[in-house]
Amino acid sequence: MIGDRIYAKVEAIAYLFLPTCMVFPQRIEPAPGQESVWDYPRPPRLEPTNKHIQIIFNGVTIADTHNAKRVLETSHPPSYYIPPEDIKMEYLISVPQSSFCEWKGRAGYYTIRVDDKEAQNAAWYYPSPTTAFASIKDYVAFYVHLMDACYLDGEKVQPQPGNFYGGWVTSDIVGPFKGGPGTWGW
C-alpha cells in the first residue's frame, strides 16, 4: 500500500534527523471501513463530501450541510470546510486574526457569538486561497473544541489533539494524530 511505503520513508528520515529522545508514532492499522491519517497525502488533498455536518453553538445550529469539502493531510484528521450559504453567517464576526498555510494560503478568522456566549477565533476561512484550494474560497472551517457540538453523519466529533489544528476525529479515522504533546516533530 502506498501509505505504508510513505510512512516507512518518513519514519526512516525522521530517525536520521530527530533527537534520539523523540518517539516516532506507531501507525494504527485501520479496520474495514476506517481510514488511517497515515494514508493521507502530503501535500494535502481536497475532496467533496456529502456527509451530513451540523455545528451547534449556544443551542443554535449555526451550520448544517451536505455540501462540505474536506482536506486530507498526512497525520491529521480531516478538516471540513462548509459553504457560507449553509452557515448562519449572522453569528460569525470577522476578526483581525490571521495565519498562513503553506498549501492553502493566508487564513482569516471569525469569532462566533450567539446571544451572550462567544468563542474567539473559533472558525477560519481562505479569502484568497492558492490555486489548488480555490474551490474552498470563503468556505468556513470550525474548531470542534470551541463549539458545543459538531456532528458528522450523526456522530459527535472529537477535536484533534491540541488547540492548534482543526481536524475532526470520528470513529472511522485512526491515527495517531499530530497535535498533542510530543507530536510537533512528526
Task: Explain what the structure shows.
- The protein has 186 residues and is mainly β.
- The chain starts with a helix and ends in a 12-residue tail after the last strand.
- It has a single domain, classed as Domain of unknown function (DUF427) (Metal Binding Protein, Guanine Nucleotide Exchange Factor, Chain A).
- It has 1 helix and 15 strands.
Layout of SSEs?
Blueprint: H1 2-17, E1 35-36, E2 45-49, E3 53-57, E4 60-65, E5 68-73, E6 76-81, E7 92-101, E8 105-114, E9 117-125, E10 140-142, E11 149-152, E12 155-156, E13 158-159, E14 168-169, E15 173-174
Parallel strand pairs: 1-15
Antiparallel strand pairs: 2-5, 3-4, 3-11, 5-6, 7-8, 8-9, 9-10, 11-12, 13-14
Give descriptors for this structure.
mainly beta, Metal Binding Protein, Guanine Nucleotide Exchange Factor, Chain A, four-stranded antiparallel beta sheet, globular, DUF427, DUF427 domain-containing protein, DUF427_sf
Mind describing the biggest β-sheet?
Answer: 4 strands, antiparallel
| Ends apart, CA distance between termini | 21 Å
The total beta strand count reads 15
The ordered H/E elements are HEEEEEEEEEEEEEEE
Number of helices: 1
CATH architecture: Beta Complex
In what order do the strands lie side by side in the largest sheet? Answer: 4-3-11-12
InterPro entries: DUF427, DUF427_sf
Protein name: DUF427 domain-containing protein
Domain DUF427: 53-143
Pfam family, one: NTP_transf_9
